[in-house]
Each structure stands twice: as C-alpha cells, then as structure tokens.
Specification:
This protein is of the alpha+beta class. 28% of the residues lie in helices and 24% in strands. The chain has helices at residues 9-26, 88-98, 128-142, and strands at residues 5-6, 31-35, 74-78, 81-86, 104-110, 118-124, 151-155. A 7-stranded antiparallel beta sheet has the order 1-7-2-3-4-6-5, covered by helices on one side. The longest helix is centred in the N-terminal third of the chain and has 18 residues, at 9-26. The radius of gyration is 18 Å and the shape is globular.
Length: 156
C-alpha cells in the first residue's frame, strides 16, 4: 500500500478494501482504521454561538480546555472479526446498521465498569469490498462522521 488516508466515500472504501487485502496477504495480526478528529471551527477571537467569548471574565480559557481531547473513533479488523468501542447511543446505531449486513453478527460485547461504553466484536465473513463498505458506514452511521471525514489506516 502506498496511501494511508482518504476523505471521500469512494476513496475511503478503496483504501479500506486495499488495507483488508494487505492485511490478509501479510498475515498481520490486525489492521486499525481511525477517523481524523473534526477540525475546530471556532477561531481565536471569535464568539461562541451564544455570543460569549471563548475566554471567561477572568481572561482564562474555559475549563473544558483543560480536559484531554477525546480519542478519535477507531475500528480494528483481525482475520474475520471487527473490534470497536461504542457509547450506548453508538451501540444502538451499530445494531441498526447490522440490519443491512445480515452476514455479520455480534460475537461478543464487553462493558467493563471502569469504562464508559461497550467493546463490540463482530464476525464478518465477506470479501474486501463488502468489509470496506461496512467499515465506512461504521464511521458515518455509528460514529456520526460527515461524508467528507478523513480516515487513516494506522496499522496493517
């Protein structure tokens, strides 16, 4: 593989299919795909939607800025199994998406008490193009990414 990112539906699906094929040909342990975090739309000096400045009255940045950034959504594929983490809302959307892929099935769900969400493993026995289509829909339908989101194959 010579490219590792794409930002249109057709290019992402080609990238994902190529990554699945490379994963299978190399016999690698797994492949990982991540969605690039959305770009911040608020620029320095702009106001928020309610008209407030991005800094509070003391001139300090909002307390939310101290929080660590959210981990971008990711999906792993190993042999014939997808592995992904979901919030409760994302899990509902995942089950709705799986209605369109009757050959895929949930093999395991784990919700550790110390984690916020559920880890889901889905068996998926299909060709690279069908797997790529599902993978793209996971990011747009389950993780609610825009149609022009950028995806990165970060490990093959």
């Amino acid at each position: 593989m010579t490219r590792f990112d794409a930002d249109t539906p057709a290019d992402r699906r080609k990238l994902f299919a190529d990554a699945v094929t490379a994963h299978r040909n190399r016999g690698s342990q797994f492949l990982t795909v991540e969605a690039e975090p959305p770009r911040e739309t608020l620029e320095f000096g702009e106001s928020t939607e309610d008209g407030a400045d991005a800094e509070n009255a003391d001139g300090d940045a909002d307390e939310d800025a101290d929080e660590e950034p959210a981990v971008p959504p990711w999906v792993q594929f190993a042999e014939k199994t997808f592995n992904l983490d979901c919030t409760d809302e994302e899990l509902d959307r995942l089950h709705a998406l799986l209605d369109d892929y009757p050959e895929f099935r949930v093999d395991a769900r784990e919700s550790p008490e110390e984690a916020e969400g559920t880890n889901v493993r889905i068996s998926a026995r299909s060709d690279a193009n069908r797997l790529a289509d599902f993978l793209d829909h996971v990011f747009t339908d389950v993780y609610d990414r825009d149609e022009d989101y950028r995806a990165w194959v970060t490990q093959i």
